């Protein structure tokens, strides 16, 4: 069975760059009608132009996913433009200033901001999309972007982020059970280290990239296209009996998302 999303309406949050951009353009290349969301108008304009340049179709909507009203408006815009929602990718998320420190030093405001960006926003998106999918009677696919950090201790500053990602895993699994009767599938992708603008400061030289790569069994840092291809499978009918699953896209890394970080932390101690 071919992995495609031909004719499907695919909403992707955080679509302006990095993994979200790769997913949105991959869906467009494979027949999807893309609804891209981002806080950046400039990034959205480029996304729309790039998709149209490859013969695709796209609607872009400026959205702050931490605001429930804006997420609801995104879903409404997708339905207004295309009549339905078939795929919704909760991708927008990331780090928050003040939360990248050891747990003993994380302040409540930073922790709450991290949670709102990486957990609450995913619930807002899943709720908005699932209601449309339920009412259509056709079902659909909800996809949560998790992280390998969800399954490992994260010393060196990413503990709060990892905690948010494991919360997403639990929410995804519970929604898969709750929404199955509406033919709605709910899954997650857990990437390892992926070379995106978000992590570029930590991959600033070829030497650093080479050093980090050696801790991944496949010997390289992940690329956005690696995650986008997995997202294509999860959105396609080829995965029609897959729900409640987390797909690792981590170059073979399983027990620690980046052993380099562990060694670095203990070398500095």
Provide structural commentary:
It is built from eight helices and seven strands. The protein is α/β, with parallel strands linked by helices. The protein has one domain (9-268): Rossmann fold (3-Layer(aba) Sandwich), CATH 3.40.50. Strands 3-2-1-4-5-6-7 form a seven-stranded parallel β-sheet, sandwiched between helices. α1 (18-29) links the parallel β1 and β2. α3 packs parallel to α4 and α4 runs parallel beside α5. The longest helix is centred in the middle third of the chain and has 29 residues, at 108-136. The mean pLDDT is 91.
**Secondary structure: helix percent:** 40-55%
The profile of the biggest β sheet is: 7 strands, parallel
Mean pLDDT: 91
CATH first level: which class?
Answer: Alpha Beta
Q: List segments where confidence is low: pLDDT < 50 over at least 5 consecutive residues.
A: none
Instruction: Tally the beta strands.
Output: 7
Portion in strands = 5-15%
CATH architecture, please? 3-Layer(aba) Sandwich
DSSP helix count? 8
First and last CA, distance: 52 Å
| Structural class estimated from helices and strands | alpha/beta
Rounded to the nearest angstrom, the radius of gyration is 18 Å
CATH superfamily: NAD(P)-binding Rossmann-like Domain
Under CATH, the topology is which?
A: Rossmann fold
Tell me the domain tally.
Answer: 1
- Topology as a string of helices (H) and strands (E): EHEHEHEHEHEHHEH
Strands ordered across the widest β-sheet: 3-2-1-4-5-6-7
Looking at the structure, what is the overall shape?
globular
């Amino acid at each position: 069975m071919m992995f495609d999303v031909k004719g499907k309406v695919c909403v992707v949050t955080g679509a302006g760059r990095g993994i979200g951009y790769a997913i949105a353009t991959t869906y467009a290349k494979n027949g999807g009608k893309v609804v891209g969301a981002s806080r950046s108008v400039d990034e959205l304009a480029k996304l729309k132009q790039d998709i149209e340049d490859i013969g695709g179709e796209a609607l872009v909507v400026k959205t702050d996913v931490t605001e429930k009203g804006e997420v609801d408006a995104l879903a409404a815009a997708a339905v207004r433009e295309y009549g339905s929602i078939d795929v919704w990718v909760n991708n927008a998320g990331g780090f928050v200033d003040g939360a990248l420190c050891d747990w003993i030093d994380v302040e409540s405001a930073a922790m709450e901001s991290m949670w709102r960006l990486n957990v609450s926003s995913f619930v807002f998106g899943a709720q908005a999309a699932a209601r449309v999918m339920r009412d259509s009677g056709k079902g659909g696919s909800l996809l949560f972007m998790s992280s390998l950090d969800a399954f490992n201790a994260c010393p060196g500053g990413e503990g709060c982020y990892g905690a948010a990602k494991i919360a997403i895993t639990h929410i995804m699994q519970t929604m898969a059970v709750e929404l199955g009767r509406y033919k709605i599938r709910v899954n997650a992708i857990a990437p390892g280290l992926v070379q995106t603008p978000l992590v570029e400061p930590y991959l600033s030289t070829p030497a650093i990239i080479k050093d980090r790569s050696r801790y991944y069994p496949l010997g390289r840092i992940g690329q956005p296209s690696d995650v986008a291809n997995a997202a294509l499978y999860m959105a396609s009918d080829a995965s029609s009996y897959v729900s409640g699953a987390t797909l690792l896209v981590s170059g073979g890394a399983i027990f620690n998302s980046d052993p380099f970080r562990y060694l670095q932390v203990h070398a500095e101690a």
